[in-house]
Amino acid sequence: MRKIVRLIVAALFYYSGLVGLWSRKMQKQGPQLIILNYHRASRGDLRRQMLYLSRYYRVMHLDEALEELYAPPGQQSQSHDPRTAVVLTFDDGYCDNYTHAFKYACELHIPITLFLIPSYLDSGDYFWWGEGKRLVKHATVATISLDGRTYQVQGTQKEQKALTTSIDAHLRYAHSIAERDTFLVRIRQELAVEPTRGVIADDEDITVPLTWAQVREMQESGWVSYGAHTMHHPVLSYISDPGEVYAEISNSREVLEERLGKKIRSFAYPIGRAEHIGDEAIKAVKKAGFSWAVTTHSGFATPQNDPYLLERTLTDASRHWLLLAAELSGIWSAFRFLWKPFVHEEENL
User: Are the CB atoms for 86 and 328 separated by under 8 Å?
Assistant: First the structure.
């Protein structure tokens, strides 16, 4: 019911012409850039979203768009296209970025930018942030003790969820990559789950990373550009050694440049909110030679923004294009007070 209410409101905004009116109003506010933050590209209608964006916005590669945004006075683009620039970024490098996002980019001639994690491209292993759920689902033992508590692995959903949460906490709050990997090896053994690297099983294909071959194929198309997302995707603010923070950031750039033969200028902070970044990470990004870095804080980029703390708009392939249209125009926020009392669930954006 709540989703239906949101969709009805968004449809009214769009088909009444208010979305278009608000979009034109936003264009008059001066230079700005909308950076969309996707992760997975399947299980939704990404193609319809891309069709909408290509019709009403100038869709660009990230580096190209930021060069334009931060160009010195007098050197800005002389494009006669008044539409607001937008960039589609995809974090992590899920395999469905190739099977879906890349497919649509080629079909519709729309550029996209992917932030990659080189160690996962090398190993083909499952991403760590999905391992808690996957391991509990495929566990072949009856019980396990963790942090002084014994969990019934084959018990209720509540019990399984509690175990998943505990595993996730160990992985997320690790103070080093070695600590995280050691725990991951141990918990896989204790739950008796095979690593099965690179194996696509059931509905888990979306948790498998891209391969280097797919990355190179996408790069050669001209429709896909890349940025760095650390070597192993730690939560940078929790890493205790500043040297390891710097290595995670600088090495990711060096590896990508070596493997792809192209300069990597953009960086995306893992998880990406202030509490996950930390001062050491920002200093490391600058020292490593990146031109700019993006967060997951919500907002649009302007020439006045710190280029190392750029805001993005979180979205998802499953989101209806009408909701996306209302959000990007600015009308969604402007009129939210009218209907928010009737819709209490938190949105993805």
Answer: yes
The predicted structure's pLDDT at residue 26: 78
Of 264 and 72, more confident:
264
What are the tokens at 137? 């689902």
| Residue in 280, 286, 288 with CA at minimum distance from that of residue 235 | 280
Calpha distance 185→63 (Å, rounded): 38
Q: Which sign, positive or negative, has the C-alpha torsion 169, 173, 174, 180?
A: positive
At 198, phi and psi to the nearest 5? 75, 0
Residues 46-49: contacts with CB under 8 Å, at least 24 apart: 46/100, 46/101, 46/104, 46/317, 47/104, 47/107, 47/108, 48/321, 49/315, 49/317, 49/319, 49/321, 49/324
201 has pLDDT over 50: no
Q: Percentage of the chain with pLDDT > 90?
A: 75
The pTM is what?
0.92
Quickly count: other Cβ atoms within 10 Å of residue 52's Cβ: 16
CB 283 within 8 A of CB 250: no
Query: Which two structure tokens, joined as six digits, stand for 201?
Result: 């099983």
Q: Which CATH architecture has domain 33-124+206-314?
A: Alpha-Beta Barrel (3.20)
Q: Which amino acid is at 270?
A: P
Over residues 306-341, the pLDDT tens digits come to: 999 999 999 999 999 999 999 999 888 777 655 555
* Domain ranges within the chain, ordered by starting residue: 1-30+319-349, 33-124+206-314, 128-190
